[in-house]
Design brief:
mainly alpha
Length: about 80
């Protein structure tokens, strides 16, 4: 399973659990328009840390929060490489 596949699976699972309607995910999908709220994103980040072994948000660097789904995926891909 790729990093992208793992992220998509977590977005879908959390949307179901939180009874949220998930927008169609593409690289251009704005995270604010994804249908998820801040709790949903917190759950996704925690689960991705367990699944992928990284938390790209746990850094002292000046990190710009991703605004699109594609940016979110790239952030994780970069953190793993």
């Amino acid at each position: 399973m790729t990093v992208r596949d793992t992220i998509v699976a977590q977005f879908e699972q959390v949307a179901v659990e939180q009874r949220r309607r998930l927008a169609r995910l593409s690289d251009e999908t704005k995270l604010l328009d994804s249908g998820l709220d801040s709790l949903s994103f917190a759950l996704i980040v925690a689960r991705l840390e367990d699944a992928l072994g990284v938390d790209p948000f746990d850094t002292t660097d000046d990190l710009k929060f991703p605004t699109t789904f594609g940016d979110f995926v790239k952030l994780y891909e970069k953190a793993i490489s």
